[in-house]
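Input sequence (222 aa), recorded before submission:
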Amino acid sequence: MNKKAVCIISGGMDSALAATLAAQEGYEVIAVHFNYGQRTETRELASFRLITEDIGAVERYEIDLPFFGQIGASALTDPSIEVPVEGVEPGVPVTYVPFRNGIFLSIASAIAEKHGAQALFIGVVEEDSSGYPDCRESYIEAMEHAVNLGTRDETQVVIRMPLVHLSKAQIVSKALEVGVNLGHTWSCYQNEDEACGVCDSCRLRLKGFAEAGAVDPIAYAG
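Predicted structure, token format:
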């Protein structure tokens, strides 16, 4: 029986690399993407579709979660909250979406149980991320325990987070090494045509490329 992995793919560099690593380990990739009312929803979905083609995903789920917009409380889903462009802010930033990864992992785990998948890959990064609490290694490990308690006895899913201790520069270097098409990825929090270059996510991405000595293939405004 072929081994299967459910891969949560946002359309960004991190999840693209994590899914590529899963495919290169010989997993049949079941790709999952969430449309949750984020500002760059259309562009992220387009990137997800390109990435799934790149890695040869055997199945693809595009799941709508409109309730995130109803909850608000994040600059990514509430248009009344501005996306910060002045650099990384102290504490948990306003771009944090409440319990987003917990909800994503719960849904992805249901898909993993349906398909009899052995692994679930998520591209969380702890050391060089934006300070989101749901990107911590200890949290993902706790979710893995909860998932396996709450599913059938024969369902044993390992949640893989291969990038959790990498810096953005290391992620860029590794992605280039394993052949990820970084031109197919999207990181900007607020623009869909040309990346703004000034939001937290763009800053982290550009810093990673600069430290890796590489050129970012996507277009930036200005």
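Checked by second reader. The domain at 4-212 is CATH 3.40.50.620 (Rossmann fold).
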